Amino acid sequence: QMPGTARHDREMAIQAKRNLSKTTDPVERLRLQCLARGSAGIKGLGRVFRIMDDDNSRTLDFKEFVKGLNDYAMMIDKEEAQKIFQIFDKDGSGTIDFDEFLVTLRPPMSKARKEIIMQAFRKLDKTGDGVITIEDLRGVYNAKHHPKYQNGDWTEDQVFRAFLDNFDSPYDKDGKVTTEEFMNYYAGVSASIDTDVYFIIMMKNAWKL
User: pLDDT of 133-187, one tens digit each?
Assistant: First the structure.
């Protein structure tokens, strides 16, 4: 059985929406707005920034930053955007590094949580090349238990592809899941789970670790 990722995702999105009304911290507000869109929400914002980064500098100036937030339909006023930008523009250069921005935006996780996530990743990454693909899943998963396979709607590969798409950003599904995508996804899920113990039990059950 595929892990119950969708259910956690829904719970997390609902909780993020609820917490939005309680927090005044601008970075936390942006984080929660992303998470309210589900676990791939932060990754989706990253993709918007990447498209705007015409010169491949992997940096954004304030104008690009605001445009990116607007394109991604983030409810944020200019003043709040300014505050966030200043937090990340540590050296006052007028630009921010968006990889660093996205890592900071990701909900923080304890070492124990990161370790169990990596354990699951390694189990799925049969070929050990740092990317999970359909080929990898063939060795780990039995698609034959999936209801859509059983009723003839999907082939084995379609079951695997749908599974991989869970971890991908909604606009950028390439059938490959990198360590970063897997981490980002579970950082989202992790945000809705209070204790390390429960998170670890959930991961162990889901992935039979």
Answer: 998 988 787 888 888 999 999 999 998 888 888 887 666 678 888 888 888 888 8
* CATH 1.10.10.60 applies to domain 3-105: no
Domain covering 111-207 assigned CATH 1.10.357.20 in the classification:
no
Query: Do the domains spanning 3-105 and 111-207 agree at the CATH topology level?
Result: yes
Three-class DSSP labels, the chain: CCCCHHHHHHHHHHHHHHHHCCCCCHHHHHHHHHHCCCCCHHHHHHHHHHHHCCCCCCEEEHHHHHHHHHHCCCCCCHHHHHHHHHHHCCCCCCEEEHHHHHHHHCCCCCHHHHHHHHHHHHHHCCCCCCEECHHHHHHHCCHHHCHHHHCCCCCHHHHHHHHHHCCCCCCCCCCCEEHHHHHHHHHHHHHCCCCHHHHHHHHHHHHCC
The domain segmentation of the chain, as residue ranges, is 3-105, 111-207
pTM: predicted TM-score of the whole model, two decimal places: 0.65
